[in-house]
Specification:
Elements lengths: L1 H8 L4 H28 L3 H27 L24 H19 L1 H19 L5 H50 L1
Helix pairs in contact: 2-3, 2-6, 3-6, 5-6
């Protein structure tokens, strides 16, 4: 309950918080399924689990990167008339990260659409190679499911976290900077 009240103080919607909690629980359940599968597959269950854990973790990391790129909030800057500004030094928010995020997002979507037909073949090749390393060729389906599941979970967890936390943190930082700038102007005018 303390966590919920703290997060509500931050201005987070309980609906988004619930979604985030459900995604984290889903992540835990998926890791449990991998553990159960690796235990039931062979006598080398630790090796199978370690391999599947690495596949899942790397897929989750890819999903995290994509979720962060798609979740970076956009800064809306107000337009001011330069003729009305009299020797006042003003600073604008640096939007380099947003521009890089937009550029990478467009490239990923473009390349993904062009190479969509090859994604299935790439997944099959990856799962076949990992299944050979595990020593169980029937593991291809669980490997493909792990890759897809953990990419999706990583994307949504990081996307929601980025949208919920970073947007609020950036807004608070901008408000504080504006207050400091106004205070400096007020002190300079005295």
């Amino acid at each position: 309950m303390k966590i919920l009240s703290l997060l509500r103080k931050e201005g987070l919607s309980s609906r988004f918080l619930l979604i985030l909690i459900c995604l984290v629980i889903s992540l835990f359940i998926c890791f449990c399924i991998i553990a159960l599968y690796s235990y039931s597959v062979s006598n080398n269950s630790c090796g199978v689990f370690a391999t599947l854990f690495m596949v899942a973790s790397s897929s989750y990391a890819v999903g995290n990167i994509l979720g962060f790129l798609f979740g970076i909030p956009k800064t809306v800057q107000s337009q001011t008339n330069s003729a009305s500004i009299k020797n006042d030094t003003t600073y604008q928010v640096n939007t380099s990260l947003e521009q890089i995020s937009d550029w990478l997002t467009k490239m990923i979507i473009g390349a993904g659409l062009v190479e969509l037909k090859d994604i299935v073949r790439v997944l099959e090749n990856i799962s076949a190679n990992i299944a050979l390393d595990i020593g169980n060729e029937q593991s291809q389906s669980i490997i493909i499911a792990s890759i897809i599941c953990f990419i999706i979970l990583g994307f949504f967890v990081t996307y929601l976290s980025t949208r919920l936390y970073i947007a609020n943190a950036l807004a608070a930082a901008n408000a504080e900077l504006q207050e400091d700038a106004e205070e400096d102007k007020r002190k300079a005018s005295l």
